Amino acid sequence: MRWLALVLVLVLSACTAFGLPDRAVIRAGLTLQLQQTETQLSDQLRLATPIIRVQKLKIRDRKPLDIGGRPAFQVLGQATWQLQQSGQKQQIKAQPFELYLQRQPQARTWRLAIPQPSSQSDRQEWSTYAIPLA
Fold first, then answer.
1. Residues near 73 by Cβ (< 8 Å), separated by ≥ 6?
2. Superkingdom, according to UniProt (predicted)?
């Protein structure tokens, strides 16, 4: 049993050492992405800004890539979240997600990266947003 615990600690430490985004970063990044999308919709419909809470998170894959010369990851998975707006709560169950997270210099913070339409087909443009971590 002790060996299993030791192996688990080493694996988790290796993930952090290699710069993989952990669950807290992925949850915060997904919350930010959902919040931005829902806020845009609410603004168009002239509704109150919603509150989003990611409740369940299942990570299927984390693929390394490069965004703007910095290391990043494409994260795929499923999430269940709660949307609260105008006093009403709605549960959104097991929806697939695709998230792009970019590691910042000194590996202290992460940014949400969102692909943008580009006039050049050979080069992807990105907008990035700081991910607030509590």
1. 20, 21, 62, 63, 64, 65, 100, 101, 103
2. Bacteria
Token couple for 29: 């990044």
**pLDDT (average), residues 40-46:** 87
CA angle (113 as vertex; 23, 119 as ends), nearest 5? 155
Nearest one of 83, 94, 111 to 58, comparing CA atoms: 94
* DSSP class of 120: -
Domains in the chain, number: 1
Q: Is 69 inside any structural domain?
A: yes
pLDDT at site 30: 96
- For the chain, where are the E strands, in sequence order? 51-67, 70-85, 88-103, 110-116, 125-130
Residue 39 confidence class, pLDDT cut points 50, 70, 90: confident
Residue 106 lies in a domain: yes
Domain assignment present for residue 36? The answer is yes
The Cα–Cα gap between 133 and 122 comes to: 34
pLDDT at res. 1: 55
